[in-house]
Known about the structure:
The structure is a single chain. This protein is mainly α. The protein has 20 helices and no strands. The chain has a domain at 12-113: lambda repressor-like DNA-binding domains (434 Repressor (Amino-terminal Domain), Orthogonal Bundle), CATH 1.10.260.
Amino acid sequence: MPRRDSTLPPDFWERDSIARALATCDLARVLEEVRLARGWSQGELARAVGYSQSWVSRVVNRQQSLTVDQVREIAGRLGIPIHLLRFADSAGPERGADPTRRREFGKVVAAAALAPGAQPPRAEADEGTAQTLRAITGGQRRLDAASPSRDLARGAVAHVELTGRTLARARRTPYAPGIAAAASEAAGFAAWLHADMDDAGSARGYYRTAVRNARFARDPLLGAYMLGSLAAFETDTEDAASGLALADEAARLLGSGVHPTAAAWLACMRAMAHATLGDGPAADAQIAAAEQAVERADNTDPPWPWVFPFTPAKVAGYRALAGVRLHRPGEARAAFAEAFGGARPSAKQGAALMVELAGAHADAGDVDEAFSLAAEALRIGVHFRSDRLISRVRRFRRSYRGPGARCVRELDEQLTATLTA
């Protein structure tokens, strides 16, 4: 691999693979070849072209269309010989061709349709439609960290309906796969909100919509992500057998040789299902696989829909959760300490972990600490009107079989006040 400050080899633009990519305006291939030749990470490539890393990731993975102006801009910043780029190809828009080529061919078709006497067609979608829809979902996700799910649910459901109608109108256009991916992400977020509202039926329905749209998008990574998310939901709603079956299906869809973040995340989903079913050895094997994946040198620049790399601290969090469900309090508490040593989770995520940690302390006989954590999680659940968190605290209380104490009575009073308010 060349040094990061090296220049491209003199014959780089004449290489067969590059010449073919230039001849068909396959910018995804050109960008990846330039990145590898210079020894850049995807983040460094993004800085070089002046766009975000997530945007570059979508381009490289052929999930983001480019305008002609963007092609020219990127060519100028990377020194791509613009005279070698062909913005259309005589072969036409064959299935699976580069989005830029399909769009340019579409412009030719549009020009013919607008000849004298022709009626202008209604615009169904363009190269920015999917990105706009995804930006809306991204904004809603950012609000989720500090807003009750019930305040966001109506808007999220309306957005799912919007993306569905947009996809239906654009189904016969080259932009349909990208819009389907945006629709999948919108449905996945709506599912998450309804899960937090403890509305299992609606959550399950939106997750299934997310999986279906991911399949239409022909994106195995997105499909595996949505299947894995549904698997985690089923496991959390005490149907771990279904959760494990869904996680196994997601693993088959991913196949081998996937990015380590995707592999580690899915291994943790499978570990949670095994632990909930009481299969300690299988859970331990999946956690070990996740730990091995996150330590790989190439665990950087995660592919969309993963935004951040899966880290050892995140695996430690799942090891802690598995320890709770396998009734290994010492192991669980040590893993929680490792997981919380890094960045703090959001309030609702932190409260969910508090309930799990409360279970570990209760198993270890530390009743005061257990009920203190459960009470704090309940307070956060009430503040955010999260029925999921409140239900988890109630489940923790039902599972406690130890002696009565003041902290137990105080949590009972807090739960009664919550349920009767």
